[in-house]
Specification:
single chain; about 375 residues; alpha+beta; Ribosomal Protein S8, Chain: A, domain 1; C8orf32 fold; 3 domains; 4-stranded antiparallel sheet; 3-stranded antiparallel sheet; 12 helices; 11 strands
Length: about 375
């Protein structure tokens, strides 16, 4: 027992000492090679042998005595010091942060490729909940993607029961199964559409207000609010994706907000998302914030697209109409109709822009319904 302990510990010290003594700090951004080395620095086996050696010294003094006892005592001290050095070394490299970044890099690469199934090697003590939070943090780096393309994900972790200690779970890998709301080729088509629309409708001399109004009015007149069928589809397209507006039969607030983001960004406007809940229905809601001439405002194309209800039978050849009740409003003004979530990505809006724009309505004139400014 003593020879085995001595041989193992000495071999471990000789093998690890060069690594511990290095003065070179690896690149934390993506230290995959260093992470692999660190993953191998598991001290649990050495800790177990130290406990066994101490047991021998305390309970079998006749076997472990004299020069052997001195050597074993010295080796125990060196082994305990080694464990301290290993733990300090791991802490100095911020292993958890390194794992965080390493996992996010792999997740990001797979989401960029729109892969629906992929595995990330973890090889560390962590939790399924922590891994899920890393995934969501990565998905939310691109808010357009998160609100239009991303549907849901399932995370299945594989753990090593031999290394798991109580509530410390050693996770070997995490397999992600991701559902996207729309086919990536459709999203590419929307991008091409947005480029073409901006080239045809936004002029070089348009100011921020003119750009914003053109995009707002286009979306409101183009779309028809539609919750879709039971599969969240409208005309074959996701009701959460801009394609439901451009190619389908209408979508929900996600489609409005993400299309506004797409067109406004390509038109050179600075855009953010805002979320909250309707004070009338309690339903979750999403809209945009846009910077016009250096000032941030709320803009809600969904609620500026009124639903037409008639009690007088079928109406044909009727145009859509636009209101500006939620056009370039302050936080105070917009919060009269909804709560506003605390989102660090959403700037504050302290003023409402008085544009002088008038709502259009639909009126019955000479027996026909017409859009009236």
């Amino acid at each position: 027992m003593k020879k085995k302990l001595f041989g193992f510990s000495l071999a471990m010290i000789l093998a690890i000492n060069p690594l511990i003594n290095t003065n070179i700090r690896p690149n934390i951004a993506y230290a995959a090679a260093d992470q692999a080395k660190l993953d191998k620095l598991d001290t649990s086996s050495l800790e177990s042998q130290i406990r066994a050696a101490k047991y021998l010294i305390e309970n079998m003094p006749n076997i472990i005595s004299g020069e052997n006892r001195k050597k074993l005592d010295d080796l125990i001290v060196k082994s305990e010091n080694l464990i301290v050095r290993i733990n300090n070394y791991k802490a100095s490299l911020e292993v958890n942060d390194n794992l965080n970044i390493r996992a996010k890099n792999i997740v990001r690469a797979n989401l960029d490729k729109r892969n629906t199934n992929f595995t990330v090697n973890i090889n560390a003590y962590t939790t399924n909940q922590q891994i899920q939070s890393w995934f969501l943090e990565t998905a939310k780096e691109d808010w357009y993607f998160f609100y239009s393309m991303y549907g849901k994900t399932n995370v299945k972790t594989k753990y090593d029961p031999n290394k798991t200690k109580g509530d410390k779970v050693y996770v070997q890998s995490a397999t992600f199964t991701v559902t996207f709301r729309e086919d990536p080729t459709v999203d590419d088509q929307i991008d091409l559409f947005a480029n073409e629309w901006v080239n045809q409708n936004i002029n070089a001399y348009d100011n921020d207000l003119e750009k914003t109004q053109k995009i707002h009015d286009f979306i409101v007149t183009k779309n028809q609010y539609n919750r879709g069928d039971g599969n969240d589809r409208s005309g074959g397209f996701s009701i959460y994706h801009p394609s439901s507006i451009i190619y389908g039969e209408g979508g929900v607030c996600n489609a409005y907000a993400t299309l506004f983001d797409k067109l406004a960004t390509k038109a050179g406007l600075d855009v953010r998302y805002a979320t909250g809940h309707s004070k009338k229905t309690g339903e979750p809601h999403i809209w945009n914030m846009v910077r016009v001439n250096g000032v941030w405002y709320n803009i809600d194309t969904t609620w500026d697209d009124p639903t037409i209800n008639f009690n007088e039978g079928y109406v044909e050849n009727i145009g859509d109409f636009v209101i500006y009740d939620y056009f370039l409003k302050s936080d105070e003004e917009i919060s009269k109709s909804r709560t506003i979530d605390d989102n660090p990505d959403s700037p504050e809006s302290n003023s409402t822009l008085r544009t002088g724009l008038k709502n259009t309505t639909i009126q019955r004139i000479d027996g026909e319904y017409r859009v009236v400014n």
